[in-house]
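Input (structure):
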C-alpha cells in the first residue's frame, strides 16, 4: 500500500478505500442540499427527446411502437421512445437474502437500461441527447438558407440536411459504450463521426462502430489519453463538435430525463414513493456523468424521498475519492495507490468528471466500492434468478442494499432500485462467457466484510 499524504491518512474512510477493501460511506440526510440551477436544461432535454420521437420511430423500426412493458406508463406516446422497463426482482432478492444470511427490508427492483433501444446502455440517454442537440444547432444555423425547420423531426430525414451533416463531425473519447451511442446516432443522422478508444476497449465495439461507418482511432493508453486525443483533434477543426465526457452539460441533461420517466413508471406500477416508502437508487459510476444526471433528476422529482448511492469498483472509486476529499478531478485513484483497473470496463475511470462532483456531490447520499469478484458474480445471480444477462459493469449496485448501516436513519425499508446500465449489445459468445464466469462466483457472495461508515 502506498503511503498516504498526512491529510488523507487521517481519514479512516480514505484509508479503507486505499486498502482496496469494500467500503461504504453513507451520509446522513439531516439537511437536504439545494438543487443546482439545472432544471431548465433537464426540461429542454425532455422536450428534445419528445420532438425527435417520430424521427426515432421512423429511423429505428424497433422503436416504432411502445413495448408492452412500457405502455401503461406512457399511454400517450405512439413510438420513438428511448426508455427501459422498471421491474421488481423478487427471485434475485430471495437469492441474495440467502447468500447474505440476512433479509433485506423493502423490495428490490431493477431499472433495465441494459436493454435501452438502439445502443443497449445508459449512454443512450446522455449520448443521444448531445448528438440531437448538436443536430438541432446545425439545422438552426442553416434554417433560413435551406428552408429547414429545426424543430420539425422530418427535417432530419431529408437530403439537404444529410448533405450538410456530412460536412460536420462529432468526436468523442470513450472506453466503449459512449462511443457506441454517439457513433451509431451520429452516423444515422448523416454526421461524420470519430471515436477515440482506449486500449481496454473491446474489439467487438470497434468492429460494430466501423460497420456503421464511424472512424475508430485506437490509442495505446487509458481513457484519459483517448479523451485528450479526441479533444486535441477537435480543437483546431472546423464544423467539429467534441463530446466532452469529463465536463458536458448536454450529456448530463440527457441522463436526467430518466427521472421524469421513472416517476411515471412507479405511478403506473401503483407504487408511491414518499417518506413512508422511500426510494434508494444504486447507480454504477464511472466518470460520474450518467449517475450524476440521473441523481439530479431524481432529487428534482422525488426530493427527500429518494437517496442515490454511487457504486464503483474497489480499484477505481474515482467519484468516491473526489467527493470525500473535496478534490474532485484534482485527485486520481492512483494517488492513493489503487490501480484503476477493473473487469467492469464502463467503470474503469481513475479521475472523476470536473463538473459532477462540485455540482451534484452534495445531492449524493452514499458511495460504495465493490470488489470485481462481486461485480462479476452479479452477472451470474441475475442470469440464474431473473433470466437477465447484462455486462459486468451493470451489476455493480446489486449487492449494496445488503450493506446496512447501524443507525435507524439508514433503515433499509422502501424500494431498492438497482440500475442495470448495459448489456444488450454484447455479442452472444462474450455474454455466455460473462454468465459462465459469474455463475462460478455466485457462492462467493456472502456476508459483506464491508467497512461501513455513517456520518
Ligand atoms: C458509462 C457507464 C456507466 C457509468 O456512467 P459514467 O457517466 O461513466 O459515470 C455505468 N455502466 C455502464 C455499462 C456504462 O457504460
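Output (sequence):
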Amino acid at each position: 500500500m502506498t503511503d498516504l499524504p498526512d491529510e488523507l491518512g487521517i481519514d479512516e474512510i480514505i484509508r479503507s478505500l486505499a486498502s482496496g477493501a469494500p467500503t461504504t460511506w453513507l451520509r446522513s440526510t439531516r439537511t437536504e442540499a439545494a438543487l443546482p440551477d439545472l432544471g431548465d436544461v433537464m426540461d429542454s432535454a425532455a422536450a428534445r427527446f419528445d420532438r425527435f420521437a417520430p424521427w426515432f420511430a421512423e429511423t429505428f423500426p424497433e422503436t416504432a411502437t411502445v413495448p408492452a412493458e412500457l405502455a401503461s406508463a406512457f399511454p400517450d406516446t405512439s413510438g420513438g421512445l428511448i426508455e427501459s422497463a422498471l421491474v421488481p426482482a423478487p427471485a434475485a432478492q430471495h437469492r441474495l437474502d440467502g447468500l447474505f444470511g440476512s433479509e433485506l427490508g423493502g423490495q428490490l427492483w431493477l431499472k433495465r437500461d441494459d436493454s435501452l433501444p438502439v445502443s443497449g446502455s445508459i449512454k443512450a440517454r446522455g449520448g443521444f441527447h448531445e448528438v440531437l442537440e448538436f443536430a438541432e444547432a446545425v439545422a438552426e444555423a442553416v434554417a433560413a438558407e435551406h428552408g429547414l425547420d429545426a424543430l420539425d423531426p422530418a427535417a432530419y430525414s431529408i437530403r439537404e440536411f444529410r448533405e450538410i451533416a456530412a460536412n460536420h463531425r462529432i468526436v468523442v473519447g470513450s472506453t466503449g459504450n459512449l462511443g457506441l451511442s454517439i457513433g451509431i446516432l451520429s452516423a444515422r443522422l448523416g454526421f461524420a463521426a470519430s471515436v477515440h478508444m482506449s486500449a481496454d476497449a473491446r474489439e467487438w465495439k470497434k468492429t460494430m462502430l466501423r460497420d456503421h461507418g464511424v472512424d475508430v482511432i485506437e490509442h495505446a493508453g487509458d481513457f484519459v489519453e483517448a479523451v485528450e486525443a479526441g479533444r486535441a483533434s477537435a480543437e483546431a477543426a472546423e464544423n467539429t463538435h467534441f463530446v466532452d465526457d469529463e465536463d458536458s452539460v448536454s450529456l448530463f441533461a440527457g441522463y436526467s430525463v430518466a427521472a421524469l420517466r421513472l416517476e411515471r413508471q412507479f405511478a403506473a406500477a401503483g407504487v408511491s414513493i414518499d417518506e413512508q416508502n422511500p426510494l434508494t437508487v444504486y447507480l454504477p459510476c464511472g466518470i460520474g456523468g450518467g449517475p450524476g444526471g440521473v441523481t439530479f433528476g431524481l432529487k428534482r422529482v422525488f426530493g427527500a424521498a429518494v437517496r442515490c448511492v454511487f457504486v464503483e469498483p474497489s480499484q477505481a472509486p474515482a467519484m468516491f475519492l473526489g467527493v470525500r476529499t473535496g478534490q474532485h478531478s484534482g485527485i486520481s485513484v492512483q494517488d492513493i495507490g489503487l490501480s484503476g483497473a477493473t473487469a467492469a470496463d464502463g467503470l474503469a475511470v481513475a479521475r472523476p468528471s470536473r463538473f459532477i462532483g462540485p455540482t451534484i456531490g452534495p445531492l449524493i447520499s452514499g458511495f460504495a466500492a465493490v470488489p470485481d469478484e462481486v461485480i462479476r458474480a452479479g452477472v451470474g445471480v441475475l442470469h440464474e434468478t431473473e433470466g437477465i444477462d447484462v455486462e459486468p459493469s451493470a451489476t455493480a449496485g446489486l449487492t449494496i442494499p445488503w450493506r446496512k448501516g447501524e443507525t435507524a436513519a439508514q433503515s433499509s425499508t422502501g424500494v431498492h432500485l438497482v440500475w442495470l446500465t448495459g448489456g444488450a449489445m454484447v455479442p452472444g459468445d462474450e455474454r455466455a462467457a460473462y454468465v459462465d464466469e459469474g455463475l462460478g462466483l455466485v457462492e462467493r457472495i456472502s456476508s459483506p466484510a464491508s467497512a461501513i461508515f455513517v456520518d
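Notes: The longest strand covers residues 306-313. The chain has three domains: 6-36+85-119+256-454, 41-71, 123-249.
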